[in-house]
């Protein structure tokens, strides 16, 4: 058993290699985390620019700027890039940076695989984005790529899209395996599961969700590939298949996927709110169980996306009640966050502003989700802008604000400098106002019947759409400002102490800022 | 003493769970991606309460493969569920049974004939609807005509609305059980014989049998001369 590997105890610490190859070959969790975060931000700007095209076209009724065919490619690519390119890699980046620091591990458990997981992503997205320049155009069937739109009627480039999804899936699965292995095997002595910060807990559960559903997505696009090229009929009624089957397989992946995009944000906010409330998190244990319940329930609610395809009454009732049930653990979480703030010594630095906005606005998104969960009401709301409003309220102030809050919270640890608090707050308020202006009116036009994924609309929706577009431009431009704030923070600023937030708890604050290239080479003792 | 092994750049990384926490891990002084044989990492203990890294990763990979297989298993599961619960208006195969006629009840059966996109045949039923008694055997003729100058193969896919009536709609004979090959300019009449089950819920008074006709010439090239009726 004991294979002694002695390298002469050459204990001189070494930093990163020099030059470009540092980033190509790195197996350091901090380097890889940084690359993930930059990649996610790049994709966020790219997906955001597609959203700007959409909102510019919808600024006024009538076709002004782009043709419907291109508009469809924009909505599809916006969704795909934001989900798979921005939100998921951002959380993997945060996981890479913070999980080893939070559990006292020297690195991720599988560092080489970590490198490979990251480098698959640029390949996948180059492949995906390149389809926009192919003769038939890029994917135009919506990010949910329902068959037969994505099979029989798809542009030629759909095969590129399928391979891109395969690559992203492999990347996510490897990332998830890495997270599970790190959390289960590399915790410092004394760091029992129930002592882990909630960000680690939520990521552990997220990783299991990824391992469970990304293979199903891979299977789904594989079936598409076979239908398109090898003459099978999984989703083709002509050969005995069924297009509705596609929706079942897709949403079996798709619903857990939406929790994959929000659970890590829950975890980050559960670290940030106690810090700026100067109180320990209220109800830690219930938070863990609530997260696990949400993850479990996410597997049995998928058909609420399909209330109108014609599922039996019993099915509609089951999926409706199961969906409404998710409000219970989510309510527990919101209650705990509010109780953590209750009678705390609150201060509102930028991370806290984003975290508080997260709690309020995510709850609004949750409530519109409850409205959509009611099957008979959903017959009316289905495929309207109300749905768009709902999922943007859970994803933008949910997932994205969670990422912004995390970024501001841990930027001092990453860069060794404090970010500019005034600019940070300005970023928050511009984002907050822009985001609400963009998405709140969508509730109204949706309830009034404006359908999703249209480049043109009825005149009665004109004013609200103009407000939406102005808000969207404001939100979009604000994110360039965020880039400026981050670069400014990297280049200089007041030096950050090891623990820049007086109320912060956790191992990550026990290492200096910026975090050295190698941390916890000796396991810390956790009491 | 068991070694602690730490290679921030290597392929393997594991920690001896604090049992030998006093021993400093050996840092590899190289920044090039390296180097440790895979089997070494599995020989180093992980945390006391956890499974070794290699076994853990193997288990997770098995889970990944199982879920990939599950994705494909959803296909037959879906078919079984549709059959068992009559979801999606899917009708079963050929019905062999017989039923007593229920003269006290009447059900209106409506027929829809639709061409899938790119299908050019003329395709319609002889009548739009008939009124039937549950239990009785009824027949409706559908007409198909190939107006093109080449032989074509077609497949009709049936669907019943409301979906919960699908399991009470039995076809003793249907052109949808086979494919149709039509020569250029050929016209045929295709029968469907069906029984509406006596056990069908009383609140269903009206049902629709919809056929969509697909061109499957590319998938099943027709033989040049038709061999049978």
From TrEMBL, chain A:
EC number: 7.1.1.9
Major localization listed first in the record, in broad terms: membrane
CDD domains for this protein: Cyt_c_Oxidase_I
UniProt domain Cytochrome oxidase subunit I profile: residue ranges: 23-527
Topology class, membrane: Multi-pass membrane protein
Single GO BP term: electron transport coupled proton transport
Function summary: Cytochrome c oxidase is the component of the respiratory chain that catalyzes the reduction of oxygen to water. Subunits 1-3 form the functional core of the enzyme complex. CO I is the catalytic subunit of the enzyme. Electrons originating in cytochrome c are transferred via the copper A center of subunit 2 and heme A of subunit 1 to the bimetallic center formed by heme A3 and copper B.
Family annotation (PANTHER family): CYTOCHROME C OXIDASE SUBUNIT 1
NCBIfam families per UniProt: CtaD_CoxA (TIGR02891)
Name the UniProt record assigns to this protein: Cytochrome c oxidase subunit 1
Organism: Pseudomonas haemolytica
Underlying gene: ctaD
């Amino acid at each position: 058993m004991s294979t002694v590997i002695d390298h002469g105890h050459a204990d001189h610490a070494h930093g990163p290699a020099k030059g470009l190859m540092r980033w190509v070959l790195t197996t350091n969790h901090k380097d890889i985390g940084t690359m993930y975060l930059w990649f996610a931000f790049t994709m966020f700007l790219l997906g955001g620019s597609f959203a700007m095209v959409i909102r510019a076209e919808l600024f006024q009724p009538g076709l002004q700027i782009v043709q419907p065919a291109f508009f469809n490619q924009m909505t599809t690519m916006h969704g795909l890039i934001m989900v798979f390119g921005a939100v998921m890699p951002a959380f993997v980046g945060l996981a890479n940076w913070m999980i080893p620091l939070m559990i006292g591990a020297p690195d991720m458990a599988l560092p080489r695989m970590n490198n490979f997981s990251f480098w698959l992503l640029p390949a996948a997205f180059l492949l995906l984005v390149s389809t926009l320049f192919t003769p038939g155009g890029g994917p135009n069937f919506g990010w949910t790529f329902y068959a037969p739109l994505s099979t029989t009627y798809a542009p030629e480039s759909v095969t590129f899209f399928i391979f891109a999804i395969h690559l992203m899936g492999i990347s996510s699965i490897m990332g998830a395996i890495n997270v599970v292995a790190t959390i289960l095997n590399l915790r410092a002595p004394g760091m029992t599961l129930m002592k882990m910060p909630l960000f680690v807990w939520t990521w552990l559960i997220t990783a299991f969700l990824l391992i469970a559903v990304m293979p199903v997505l891979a299977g789904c696009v594989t079936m598409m590939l076979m239908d398109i090229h090898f003459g099978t009929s999984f989703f083709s009624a002509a050969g005995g298949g069924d297009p509705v089957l596609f929706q079942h397989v897709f949403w079996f992946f798709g619903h857990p996927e939406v929790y994959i995009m929000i659970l890590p944000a829950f975890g980050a906010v559960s670290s940030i709110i106690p810090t700026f409330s100067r109180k320990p998190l209220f109800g830690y244990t219930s938070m863990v169980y609530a997260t696990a319940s949400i993850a479990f329930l996410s597997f049995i609610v998928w058909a609420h996306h399909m209330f109108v395809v014609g599922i039996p009454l019993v099915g509609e009732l089951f999926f409706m009640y199961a969906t409404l049930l998710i409000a219970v653990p989510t309510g527990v979480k919101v209650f705990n966050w509010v109780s953590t703030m209750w009678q705390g010594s609150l201060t509102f630095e930028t991370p806290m502003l984003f975290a508080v906005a997260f709690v309020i606005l995510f709850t609004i998104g949750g409530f519109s989700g409850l409205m959509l969960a009611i099957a008979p009401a959903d017959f009316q709301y289905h495929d309207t802008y109300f749905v768009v409003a709902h999922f943007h309220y859970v994803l933008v102030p949910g997932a994205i604000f969670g990422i912004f809050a995390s970024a501001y919270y841990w930027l001092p640890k990453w860069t060794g400098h404090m970010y500019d608090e005034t600019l940070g707050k300005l970023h928050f308020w511009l984002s907050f106002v822009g985001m609400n202006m963009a998405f709140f009116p969508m509730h109204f036009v949706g309830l009034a019947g404006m359908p999703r994924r249209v480049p043109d609309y009825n005149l009665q929706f004109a004013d609200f759409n103009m407000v939406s577009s102005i808000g969207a431009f404001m939100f979009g431009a604000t994110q360039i400002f965020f880039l400026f704030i981050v670069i400014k923070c990297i280049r200089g600023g007041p030096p950050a102490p090891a623990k820049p937030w007086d109320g912060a708890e956790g191992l990550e604050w026990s290492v200096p800022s910026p975090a050295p290239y190698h941390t916890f080479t000796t396991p810390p003792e956790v009491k | 003493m068991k070694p602690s092994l730490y290679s921030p750049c290597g392929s393997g990384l594991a920690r001896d769970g604090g049992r030998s926490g006093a021993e400093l891990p050996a840092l590899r002084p190289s920044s090039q991606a390296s180097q440790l044989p895979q089997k070494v990492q599995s020989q180093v203990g992980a945390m006391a309460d956890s499974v070794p890294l290699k076994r853990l990763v193997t288990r997770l990979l098995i889970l990944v493969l199982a879920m990939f297989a599950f994705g494909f298993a959803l296909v037959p599961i879906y078919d079984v569920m549709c059959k068992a619960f009559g979801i999606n208006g899917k009708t079963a195969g050929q019905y062999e049974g017989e039923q007593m006629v229920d003269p006290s009840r009447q059900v209106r059966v409506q027929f829809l004939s639709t061409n899938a996109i790119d299908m050019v045949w003329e395709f319609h039923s002889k009548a739009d609807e008939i009124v039937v008694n549950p239990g009785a055997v009824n027949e409706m003729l559908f007409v198909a005509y190939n107006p093109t100058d080449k032989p074509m193969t077609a497949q009709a896919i049936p669907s019943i609305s409301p979906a919960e009536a699908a399991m009470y709609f039995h076809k003793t004979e249907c052109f949808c059980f086979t494919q149709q090959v039509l020569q250029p300019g050929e016209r045929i009449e295709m029968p469907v014989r069906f029984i509406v089950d006596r056990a069908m819920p009383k609140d269903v008074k009206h049902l629709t049998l919809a056929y969509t006709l697909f061109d499957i010439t590319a998938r099943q090239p027709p033989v040049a001369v038709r061999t049978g009726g």
